[in-house]
Amino acid sequence: MTTLPAPLSGSEHNYLSRDYHVLSWLLTKDHKRIGILYLVTITAFFLLGGLAATLMRLNLLTPNGWLVEGATYNKLFTMHGVIMVWFFLVPAVPAVIGNFIVPLMIGARDVAFPRLNLLSWYLFTIGGIVALTAMVRGGVDTGWTFYTPYSTGYANTYVFLTATGIMISGFSSILTGLNFIVTIHTMRCPGLTWFRLPLFLWSLYATSIIMVLATPVLAITLALVAAERMLGLGIFDPAAGGDPVLFQHLFWFYSHPAVYIMILPGMGVVSELITCFSRKRVFGYSFIAFSSLAIAFFGFLVWGHHMFVAGESTYIAFAFSLLSYIVAVPSAIKVFNWTATLYKGSISLETPMLYALGFIGLFTMGGLTGLFLAALGMDVHVHDTYFVIAHFHYIMVGGMVMGYMGALHFWWPKMTGRMYPEWWGRFSAFTIFIGFNLTFFPQFILGYLGMPRRYHAYAPEFQTLNVMSTAGASILAVGYFLPLCYLIWSLRYGPLAKANPWNATGLEWQTTSPPPEHNFESIPTVDQEAYAYHLMEVPDAR
Amino acid sequence: MLTAFRLFPETGSTIAKHVDHLFIFLLIVSGAITLLVFVLIMTFALRYRRRRGDKTIPPATRTYTSLELTWTIVTFCLAMVMFAWGAKLYARMFDPPDSAMVVYVVAKQWMWKIQHPEGHREINELHVPVGQPVKLVMSSQDVIHDFFVPAFRIKHDVLPGRYTSLWFTATKPGSYHFFCSQYCGAGHADMVGQVIAMEPSRYEAWLAGTAPEQTPADAGAKLFVKFGCAGCHGVNAPTLAGLYRSQVTLQDGSQVTADERYIRDSILDSTSQVVQGYAPVMPSYRSQVSEVQMMQLLEYIKSLKDPAAEEGRIKKP
Ligand SMILES: [Cu+2]
Ligand SMILES: [Cu+2]
Known about the structure:
CATH architecture of chain A: Up-down Bundle
Number of helices of chain B: 6
Distance between the termini of chain B: 41 Å
Number of strands of chain A: 0
CATH superfamily of chain A: Cytochrome c oxidase-like, subunit I domain
CATH class of the domain at 101-209 in chain B: Mainly Beta
Bound molecules: copper (II) ion
Distance between the termini of chain A: 32 Å
Low-confidence stretches of chain B: 309-317
Mean pLDDT of chain A: 94
CATH superfamily of the domain at 101-209 in chain B: Cupredoxins -  blue copper proteins
CATH architecture of the domain at 101-209 in chain B: Sandwich
Strand content of chain B: 15-25%
Helix content of chain B: 25-40%
Order of helices and strands of chain B: HHEEEEEEEEEEHHEEHHE
Strand order of the largest sheet of chain B: 3-2-1-5-8
Largest interface: A-B, 99 and 92 residues
Structural class of chain A: mainly alpha
Oligomer: heterodimer
Low-confidence stretches of chain A: 1-10
Radius of gyration of chain B: 27 Å
Mean pLDDT of chain B: 88
């Protein structure tokens, strides 16, 4: 946190220059500073999770797994999953971008509960430290899914500590969700009606509802696992009359909606970026807005699609498959509407736009391969293989991380008062796109061939594709490393940012870059719909 | 056969080609949609690219509700076709034919124990005759595992404390990998083996060449006396002859088919499904019968075929 250098922008009194003391950061109630705190924290977690992935990919270069033993490999993929899901993807857009941008976007001075907001960050960080402690002391080897009875009766690793860490950070999700819901309900500036809200807010609103409703179930589930480990309750133990599959129901009842916690905010970002860089109001505003709510609702009804071969009855499987297809429709609607938005636009392909277009392409592929998995007879073959791994990485990395990177570049001038170097931005966006596809596309083929997930060693016929995947991953790693370098570089050397460098419509662009402590000199009023780009001047193509 | 690099897995079972057909259908539909989206994005991004100095403001976006409804309905219908196709295939995958020969699979960290009805035991290998439906009745001694044969396009979790099953008919002689595909601990990646599909004549020869000391049914007969089952069954408890695959009427009037899972549950926890007309006096054998013994008892009960002694039992056709 202290690495941020002194005055960043022409504006004298901004939220950064107000006070440089470390304590002024650690005790801040300013949503913008809290957003930055999250940014620094999750970047550290991203690097750790990425490190685990790097070791895994290196190990998979040879069929017998030359680098690490099975037990170590199992700890690595658990670490990768736990960190990336709970300590990077879940908070990435909501807690970093959302915290920074939501109050600015609705013309408010802060979120509804600033103290709670700071508490969220503390809970998140403490949870993260607890989970990291478990990893440092010896790791966990249950996979991020903690399936029973392995996690309750057989794993000799730090299951309890890790579960505790996740549970603590879960409360941070709940508080953040609660904060956003109340903020969006009560603090919109005059004239900003629900149907004038930028779509980013609709998607974050839907996300917050899921956070508040689903996360408690995760806490209960992990508490049961912990209790069973400590006290031997027998809830999941068949020898004591329990049912190990019950755990899977509870876990996926949270974790399927959590998939949407991880992707909906990215979708919101794309709506912002596509409109700004094609100078068009979004196509089908209300369809996109309501599709977010539809996803949030139906997302709660499909958890059983993770258990088609876990002993579910045939009829239950039918129901979950049907519902999974229904939840696919609103996602498709979004893709079509974004694509249609481009029609007759005035399109400039700056870095954030490249990420947004990348998101649409990769999310489409991720979503469509989800249709394979929802098809019952097909899922039997590809379930728990690399096909699933590829599928959800297309959604989570191809979709969400792309969205997050797009958001970071788009709002970077607002957050720091500096521009990032455009050429480097475009270059690394392409690198990430290419590296990503090289890494994960071969995994679809591997999965259909039958390579199971979570194997540190594999049958020799799978080697060629694994080598390709690892090669792609090294390109991907370069792609992620570059932004880390040039964004930090830009903090000191980047050109000063104007208040509205993109000529974008959102309220956040009507205040200085970086914004003053209380966001606006005077509270703005809104008298038009969102994305009124037909009323805005078109900036120069770069 | 096992090591060649390929892009498409081998097909070794009757169901495999049906899975492949569905896969190809999904591939074509999703390929077409991906292509459409990619081509549209590329075309728009190039065609409407802002030139240097171009300050023209694009026309305002209009709403086309009919277009929105069209793509919503088309997507929905496509999704329903996928659902129906997948569901139909799934129903077939988990409905074994009556002629299926039963093989028991017991999983434990980190090996597969396989037991044929004739008494042959194997570890991490499963010999089967080509052309004969085979039903695997599976259970685990510890954590959850999963039996997965890529060339057959089938898999199912193997659970502790409960039977699950899987069936297939091998179509070509050869050896095919099987994998544990549910994470089960340090040796998860070592829980692999081979299904060896043989011409029926060679399978017979293999059976003959490795004759077991005693069949599971014989061992089960001894256990039936040892555990005291014989003291009640045939005396004041229902006879078990002809029980397997028959319809049983329970106390609450419901009918169930006495498959492996039902018989297993009756032995482990008989009070959960009491037969109509009997008192729930049978003790629970939950902590006494091991997975292997259970399998032997089952084989013994299945071998008791005496329809003459049966009244009121409706045979499955
Ligand atoms: Cu799901
Ligand atoms: Cu396993």
